[in-house]
Amino acid sequence: MKLWGGRFSKETDSLVDDFNSSIRFDARMYRQDIEGSIAHATMLGKQEIIPYENSVLIVKTLNEILADIEDGKVEFSVDAEDIHMNVEKLLIERIGDVGKQLHTGRSRNDQVALDLRLYLREQCDDICDMLMELTKTLKALASKNISVIMPGYTHLQKAQPILFSHHLLAYLEMYRRDISRLRECRERLNISPLGSGALAGTTYPLDREYVAEMLNMDGVTVNSLDGVSDRDFAIEVCFVMSMIMMHTSRFAEEIILWSSNEFGFVELDDAFSTGSSIMPQKKNPDVAELARGKTGRVYGDLIALLTVMKGLPLAYNKDMQEDKEQVFDAVDTVKMTLPVFTKMLDTMTVNSETMRNAALKGFTNATDAADYLVKNGMPFRDAHKVIGEIVAYCIKSNKAIEDMSIGEFKSFSELFENDIYEAVSLENCVNLRDVTGGTATNQVKQQL
Ligand code: ARG
Prior knowledge:
Low-confidence stretches: none
Structural class: mainly alpha
Shape: elongated
Radius of gyration: 31 Å
Distance between the termini: 63 Å
CATH architecture of the largest domain: Up-down Bundle
Bound molecules: arginine
Order of helices and strands: HHHHHHEEHHHHEHHEHHHHHHH
Strand content: under 5%
Helix content: 55-70%
Mean pLDDT: 97
CATH superfamily of the largest domain: Fumarase/aspartase (Central domain)
C-alpha cells in the first residue's frame, strides 16, 4: 500500500505507477533528501513536536540508510514513486512507528523544493571549480604566448592584428562573468523552503531558521506559496549552463576553424582528436565539435523548463516533477564538457609563425596606415579614402602595403615619409593600441 493510500480503495494501475514515478531520475538526490530529513527531524525533536529520543533514533537510522545507499545495498522501488517516499519507506521498515513521525509538519512539496536547491547548490560549486580550472588554463596559455600576433577578425574577414593572448583573454572574461553568475545564482537558491508545507505553511511550531542554519542555508523563504511553486532557481541554473555552453561553443568554433588546413593556427594533440574510419589522413576536432553540438541540448533544457512552468497556477503541480531531468541534463552536460575542453586547450600546439604570416596578409595594417596620415595632419575621412585607394592598388599589383616603395607611397600622398614602414609594422599596430583593454602587450600584461 502507498504511504498516501488511506483514502483509496484500489491499487494504482501499474501504467500510472510507471508514468508517475520519478525515482529513476530523482534517486540522485538521495543524499540531499536525507540531509534535509536529518535537519527536519532534529528540529522536530528540539521543538518537542516529536519526542526527543524519537528524533535521535530517526537521525541515526537515516544515517544508516545513507551509508547503505552509498554501499549499493539499497534498491529503490518504482512503487514508492520518488526519492522522498523511498527514503521514508525504508525508515519506517527499519524503525516502524517512530519512522512515521518524520513527515510531521512537512510536505513533499517543500521537501522536493529543498532537495533540488541543495543539489543544485553543489552543482554550482562544482561547475565554479571547473570554470576556475578553465580560466587558469587560459591564463597560462596566454602568458606562454604573450607576444604571438594573429589576425583579428570582424565578419570573419581579417581586420586588425591582435595578440593571440588578447584573444584568449576575451574568453577568460566571459568565463569570469559566468563564474559570477553562478555565484549569484547559488546565493539566490540557498534559501530554505521547509516549513512552507503543502502550500499554506504548517500548524506546528517549526523552527525554520534552525533548519536552514543546519543546512548551511542563508535564510528561509518568506511566502509559503512561493516556497513550493518557485522553480526560478532551476531555470536560472539552466540559463547559466546555456551561457557557459554558448561561450564554449563560440570558442569551439574558433578551435575548429584554427585547426583546419586553411588556417593552421593550432594543432590539437593526438590524444584530443579523432580519426576517420575511411580517410586515413584525417584528424578531426571532435571534442570541440561536440562541445558546440551539446550547446543545443542545454538550450533545449532551458526552453523545456521555461515552458513547463509558463502556465502553472499556484501552488505545486505535478508538471513540476519535469524540472529535474532538464536541469540535471544541463548540469551533467556542462560537467562533461568543461574538463575535456580545458585539457584539449591545455595540450594544443600554437603555430605562432602561421598566425603571424596570416596577420601579414589581408591588409590588417590599413587602419594604422590611415592613422599615420591623420597623425601627419590629414582628416581621418580623407586618410580612409587614400588608404582605400592604396589597398585597391596593392590588390591589383599583388603586394602588401609595406611592400610599396616610398615613391609609390608618395604618389598617393606627399605626407608619407620613410617612417611609414615602422608605423605599419605588426608590432606597431599591436603595441600602439595601448588604451585600457586594448591589444598592446602592456595592456594584455595588465589583464593577465
Ligand atoms: N516527485 C515529486 C516531484 O518531483 C515530489 C513532490 C510530489 N508532490 C505531490 N504533491 N505529489 O515534484
